[in-house]
Amino acid sequence: MSRIFHLEREQVIPTDLDRAWEFISTPKNLDLITPENMSFSIVSDIPAEMFNGLLLEYQISIPFLGGQTWLSEIRDIQERCSFVDVQHVGPYRFWHHYHEITEQSAGIRFFDHVTYALPLGTLGSLVHALYVKSELKRIFDYREEAMKRVL
Length: 151
Known about the structure:
Blueprint: E1 4-13, H1 17-24, E2 41-42, E3 55-62, E4 66-78, E5 82-89, E6 94-104, E7 107-117, H2 121-150
Antiparallel strand pairs: 1-7, 2-3, 3-4, 4-5, 5-6, 6-7
């Protein structure tokens, strides 16, 4: 059985709610906050703004595995507040990413909670300890810096 892992990140950026929501609700902006060495590209049609049930197909590059298809669904949108993306096809056995923004005195708080599991049971847990955990940290560290630059 696969172990369930969690990742939480938050940051406050001095911006306003409208600008923050416009940025995170525009699917093409994912390119701006994804490390270049992931060879990330969205291959499905990209609407100007996300909507419940939106399916987005990406191609990503994963070390040792090569190119991978990732199909995610956007759902549970709470306008100007939160949404979820769930992986249907991709490298994880399970991926549920909750995104939330809230107003703070210093700006907008961006909060991410990811619940995920890897395939291959015990071997997946070993791969998590040796690679995936640090890789996700690197990706979210990059996002944090990119969000500061963009917003």
